[in-house]
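Re: beginner question about structure tokens

> Can someone show what the tokenized structure looks like for a real chain? I only ever see the sequence side.

Sure, here's an example I had lying around. Input first:
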Amino acid sequence: MKSLWNTKDLSTNDLALRVYSSRLLGQNPALVLHGGGNTSVKMDTTNIFGESEEILYVKGSGWDLASIEVEGFAPVKLDVLKKMVLLDTLSDLEMVRVQRAAMTNPHAPNPSVEAILHAIIPFKYVDHTHADAIVTITNTAQGAENIRQIYGDSVLIIPYVMAGFSLAQTIFEKTQGIDWAQLDGIILMNHGIFTFGDEAKSSYEQMIHLVTQAEHYLQAQEAIITAPIPIQATEDLLALARIRHSLGDAIIVTWDVSPESVHFSNRSDVKTIATRGPLTPDHVIRTKPIPVILGADPEQDILDYTQHYHEYFKRHTDGQLTCLNPMPCWAIWPGFGVLSFGRSVKEVNIVSDIKDHTIQAIQTAELLGGWKALPESKIFEMEYWELEQAKLRKNSAVLPLQGKIALVTGASSGIGYHCVKTLQAQGAAIVAVDINPNISTLFTPQKDILGIVCDMTCEKSIQNAVNATIRHFGGLDIIISNAGTFPPSETCANMSSKNWSDSLAINLTSHQQLLQAAIPYLTLSHDAAVIMIASKNVAAPGPGASAYSVAKAGQTQLARVAALELGEYGVRVNIIHPNAVFDTGIWTTEVLEKRAKHYGMSVEAYKSNNILKKEVTSQEVATLACAMAGPIFAKTTGAQIPIDGGNERVI
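And the corresponding structure tokens:
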């Protein structure tokens, strides 16, 4: 550990310093992961009546230390918190209610469940992290002895106690009559570390110092995992898609084939060491108690896991609890690497990050005498903690396409671009493909969108795009087959063979080849949808547009046949017929002016030349396409839907 403290241009305001040092802690994943840890500062303030009162500004629920702002700290009256620890009993929900009632700003987030503990530590600044090195050492058979060997009597060692009121009360009782000035910190077994000081810098640097001592101890014990020799992971994309299918509907899967993950998956003892419990109890809400170990029959392994989870629930429930989703959150796939599962890219990335730290800690602890997590009953207690369940209930809203995986072609502009953004807003993860090289960075840094350069007239390029979708997200549920061009106007008598073949290649054959490449994965979706973006020209072609109209008619017929063939697998195939969508790449200013002139209209009049006298936009087509991918059209297939403002010739 290195101190990152930098006094240059640093504010001397107490709360600003609290924000600054909290961020220093939060930006180091070896100290804090995804909302973990908490910090506080005690301040004297003057209330609206001119009275002086002490306030504890403590990290609020839902905030991440890496990016916390002043607004992320909940101001709580210190005297109330100190009185709370003196109570004989206090339920968790009652604790939250009383803490919130003692806040001086009703709009602030709920105070951390560790607020009472922060209050009774008699220093201005208090820092709490789940430092990997320390938690790893405590997750061994001789954890307490090892900690004592490192720190002697300079730290207070607390056997594992559930976070919240019980932990605060335990530490309060153990510190009666002690000289806090003689303590460098508090080590919570299987949980983390607290440091404190009257200055933000001293508390922060004490954290760095104590964690560094733990790291040095691991080095001295030769309990350091060296980088494994890179080996190539086995690849089986269909097996990956089947695993995703076994997990239920709408799940994102990340596949980690890093040398570290592949090496861990190949350990002969992986089934034993990986299933002893999580790195910290806090992680169980994200990762479940253990991963699933996949073998020759991954689908059966997942089924067995869910059965074992139900048995685990029955062993520990008091009869008043409702069983959570029994599916695993991550998997060890020997020879292939490690998989992480979630309902969104954000969720699955959190699981993946925790997994990285967990497998590192497991192997380190094994070198230190053996990985030993908390007893199953303690893990269950945290997983079904009423406060954690309350958090889950708050986040229970599900978007219409949450966890779905989509592939959109022609995605760099127009209809395709708006389809990508609309799918994203509805919760899907998307692979956006286009021949435009800008597609690879167009949606950066949005992790739920992968941009891929793809020539849709090249069958190999199409297959690569489909493979990348499975490799990156684990499956495929939705295709919006949109890529196309509008060739130059030519009569049948004067048709150029190149324009004809080029139009068929992009406007028809590319859609067939994409569909063919995707079918093995679409049939492994619980609810797959293919939306073909065709044209009004199918029903009402115009002179000089045979190359375009014939290709789009073929695309429509392809979709109708596909609907017949794929219906037994639950794959819906529908067609949208837009007309005169002028904010797309097809309609250049020159083409638009030429067509308007041909009809003797102004450009504006030409844009709304339909029965409703309304212009049709790319966003409106995208909205319809995404609706057809969702539950509204769950029982519709083989349909052709116009979006053209009403075309007299079609009607």
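Each token stands for a local structural state, so reading them left to right follows the chain. The chain has three domains: 14-220, 237-394, 405-643.
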